[in-house]
Amino acid sequence: MTGWRIILAATAAATGLCVVGTGPPSAEARAKAVEVTRFLGEQRVPHKTPLDGTTVGGLSGFDRDPRTGTWYFVSDDRWRYNPARFYTGSLEIDRVTGAFTGVRLTGVTTLRRQDGTPYPPYGQPESADPETIRFDPRSRRLLWGNEGDRPAEGSDIPVSDQFIGWTDGEGRDHGRLRKPGNLDLTDTDRGPRRNFGFEALAVTPHTIAAAIEGPRYEDGEPPTVRRGAPARITTWNRAGTVRGQYAYAIDPLPTAPDPPDGHTDTGISEILAIDDHRYLALERSWLEGVGYKVKLYEFDLRGATNVLSRPGLTDGRPYRPVAKRLVLDLSTVRPPVQNLEGLAWGPRLATGECTLVVGSDDNFDSGEVTQFLAFATRGC
Description:
The chain has 380 residues and is mostly beta strands. It has helices at 12-15, 27-31; strands at 18-19, 35-45, 50-51, 54-55, 59-64, 71-75, 85-93, 100-110, 130-136, 141-146, 163-167, 173-176, 198-203, 207-212, 229-237, 242-250, 264-273, 278-287, 291-300, 318-319, 323-329, 340-348, 354-360, 370-378.
């Protein structure tokens, strides 16, 4: 396990970034650093499992109600099979031994717009791409992230803006967080790129945080093998007022695709709150001819520059990104690594350890799996 570090702009000349480092985190932060102590097991959901008239798959985010033990799983199916929806169920983790013995999906709920209708299918205005979901113990409602959509080059897909929205257990709309204008999706080279919108969400007693997957047009080019790129993390207070925006430095690509000019896709696929300042992040890469690579990081917002008012991050002005520390290379667990997009806390064990669950989105592809990996952790 590596020590705390700041990702510096080693390729500032190529990206136009001017990043300055911060001092090391406090002794208190280092003492509380999250540590994975043991692997508790793996469970899978069979491919295209039918449930209540729907096809299970694309589980891109999940969370747990600590009071009832109910788990919520959001699907990023864009009405290829069924409307935008979330599932309820359970992950069976023994609090005494830590054994992870099963996953059960027991119900499904359609996510609905303010007028009570389901979100339209892909390619239509106001279509939804659910990528992340959190249960809020304070309000006992759910908060979910819609990545939205914007035209690909040469396409006529309409802009369907991204958002973070509240819903209840029946899927009814309960409003949205007001997002900064710099996160609006457009049909120009401005704002978040296509498939680089809201992918990650975290809730604490005092803060809501959401991360877009990769760099906005104004913040630089996506990562390559030679350089990384910044993604913006936005925070709100519990009243829904934007508090700040911080740069998270995504790593360079872990390796080149095959062929070298092949397709790549890399960024933040989920975040999870440890407290009001510290979070875990999944950095997930897909490389043509190679497959998936995923790492789990801990990061800390304290000491990072608030870049909310900055139109872009390539103008040469210095800023401090969040401090990040490698917790675990998930590419080494149950290879081949899957499309890991979900991250949530499970029940606390009798040993005092927390359980951490990481899960994959199978993309409804028979060559991929819906997988849940459970770990025991300290420092949570």
